[in-house]
Design brief:
Three copies of one chain form a homotrimer. By secondary structure, chain A is an alpha+beta fold. Chain A has a single domain, classed as YjbQ-like (Jelly Rolls). The first copy, chain A, has four helices and ten strands. Chain A has a five-stranded antiparallel beta sheet with strand order 3-10-5-7-8, with helices on one face. In chain A, strand 7 and strand 8 form a beta hairpin. The radius of gyration of chain A is 20 Å and the shape is elongated.
Chain lengths: 167, 167, 167
């Protein structure tokens, strides 16, 4: 019977030889939103998932389940927290004229379009076990819908546990 | 000579011990479009590729080859199928004034800009062998070019075949 | 003690049997920008990283570290190199009225918003060891900030070294 050693491999050769273990790790996080324009900083929660994964080098995907909220990066300070939903409302304003409204009358045609243009999915690299983000770059979740929602965000980490060649 | 057992590994320890096999799987799908604003629901085709991969936990990347079409998620209902190309034409209208037009005269400067802003690439998580999407969230392909095109979309699944810890 | 053979595995069975090695590979690239609207073609540098990785089938993530620049794909010709920053300035114009300006007075509120809407992250598939891009589709980096910056871009390749089934 094979033992646990089979999950490890030898990468490279000679002095560059090192162990690695390639893996995936997935966890859901939840956000309760207050309605249109409510923005949350997910960086700490995504960092926790990356830490729990043990993955040192790879990427993490952050994905909003549902068609009326978006994920991205921003400098998460109060000014931009207001500016982002304001510019989206300016470009894609609430209106009863959308085809979506004429069919569904739920007042969130602009929510769908804003969320689609911004996008539900983000991929961030991981290096030495840490998210690689700028000092003033955070991962945000933006509620585009017109009412508060319970949001599920799926965080998937893929990469390996090898130590960097510096170690 | 090593036998097929080497592709399997033991993850975790004790009662949590389980087999997994990390892998990638790639397949191309094709879409025939009718020109500007033609939108297709790719969810079923992407689901087929994920099923064929056998991958249980991971991510799938859906990528449009070419610079004048886009991939994203939307509630795929008739209203929004009209609203999305309409709002893009409103924000980035057809015009002969683009630098691209003055050089190439092919009438699709707005097509390039719309496709670039929306983006050619989407990553969706996979859990228990299924795409994790909201009930009203589908994967779309939007033709931004001014004429019909034969489109190639590359679907790449990365993850592992291990059963969830619940099983 | 296990030997280097443990990193290889046998995939499939019978005549479909073939070797593969799943791995991740990460490298940083640098770009010096001249300020707002400066656009660079990263395709050659990303291709070099993919070549160095030895990965045949998988994906590559290209990520801008920092909140005022963006990554995407475009036909990298002089007309569109001007059109993209121009349309972004048209949609999200420079202004002192942004909340970000009123707090920080650094004149780059629009830079943040443009970069967030366009996004810092791109995933491109790899097939037969090559980026899968259209003939007129290149990977760009767009500086949205108001001054020149030294930019770090993280390139992460995940996939396997197996030969395609055609070989």
């Amino acid at each position: 019977m094979p033992s646990a050693v089979y999950i490890y491999g030898l990468h490279g050769a000679g002095e560059d030889l090192r162990w690695f273990k390639l893996m995936s790790y997935q966890q859901q996080i939840s956000v309760t939103t207050k309605g249109h324009g409510d923005i949350h900083d997910l960086t700490e929660q995504v960092t926790s998932v990356v830490n729990a994964s043990g993955i040192q080098t790879g990427t993490v995907n952050v994905f909003n389940v549902g068609s009326t909220a978006a994920i991205g990066t921003i400098e998460f300070e109060p000014g931009l927290q207001d500016d982002l939903p304001a510019i989206l409302d300016n470009l894609i304003p609430p209106s009863r004229n959308y085809g979506h409204e004429q069919a569904w009358h739920d007042g969130n045609g602009h929510s769908h379009l804003q969320a689609t243009v911004l996008g539900p999915s983000l991929v961030v690299p991981i290096s030495d076990g840490k998210l690689v983000l700028g000092t003033w770059q955070q991962i945000f979740h933006l509620e585009c819908d017109v009412r508060g929602r319970e949001r599920t965000i799926v965080v998937t980490v893929i990469g390996d546990e090898r130590q960097s060649t510096r170690n």
